[in-house]
């Protein structure tokens, strides 16, 4: 029975991981089609996604009638970085190709390593640095591939500019992902997604009024265009809904490997739907990045365990004064109840 339960749980994680990867590929496909139709409205695309998250998750949080577990200004900062990351990456489809954009998204791993090392004190093994370095080498091949293919297929494209926008967007994703992962593991998942949607909606609304109002007025809202914007919003909604489950059930290992399959779908989309040839360097870059992600992911569990152990010790140490005070004030049974409540609150 236990073996069957493990098999079913593994299949569930694999299914959810592929759902995340498919939603990411679907959002990339919708963005690339919108860009090819001459529409430049990345903030509006994100606005609809955040609106959908807000309509679904904020009522759930309000129904609970509880105070936020995390101060609102932290959610504001988290949403700000997420909005900027989405804006820059979606904007990149105006200048680059879907294959390059989806693969360069892996640059987020590099920034996350640097950010968690400096800000959170996370320590990584030598093999994790080898994996991250391998990914960087593969991403460098993507830049070289785009530099050689510039103006060969679409004179309106500026691949290197699009690649630069993606890399800049991954910085925002790194800050957002690190903050979201911490909040999801330490606090309430529904509250995190709800507040991310709400503040993302407010920030994108302000930026649309300032930067994108004229471009939005020029859009011809045909049934095809409405379907593409709606499809992008639904795909992002599924991504933000399912990703926390995958992170919580399997950690970053299977999550990163699952996202890697979205790059394979991006190649298929570019070949089948756009009838475009792929530079040979891209296949080499894809292989190198795949190897790097596998090396990094296979050695990711040890660092997570070390981080969990390092965070668990201070939490127990902070409970000692509470245990002492409760012992002086009341009986030992009351002390155990207070200690148990405090442990639940910390977790």
TrEMBL record:
Topology of the protein relative to the lipid bilayer: Multi-pass membrane protein
Transmembrane segments: 46-63, 70-89, 95-119, 126-145, 157-178, 190-210, 225-247, 254-275, 281-298
Record's compositionally biased regions (Polar residues): 327-336
Main localization category: membrane
GO-annotated cellular components: membrane
Short name of one Pfam family: SLC35F
Localization per Swiss-Prot or TrEMBL: Membrane
Keywords, comma-separated and alphabetical: Membrane, Signal, Transmembrane, Transmembrane helix, Transport
Top-rank taxon: Eukaryota
Amino acid composition bias (Basic and acidic residues), ranges on this chain: 337-347
Transferase found in the keyword field: no
Record's keyword annotation contains Membrane: yes
Secretion signal, residue range per the UniProt entry: 1-25
Entry GO MF terms: transmembrane transporter activity
Region Disordered, residue ranges: 323-347
Annotated family: Belongs to the SLC35F solute transporter family.
Protein name in the entry: Solute carrier family 35, member F1
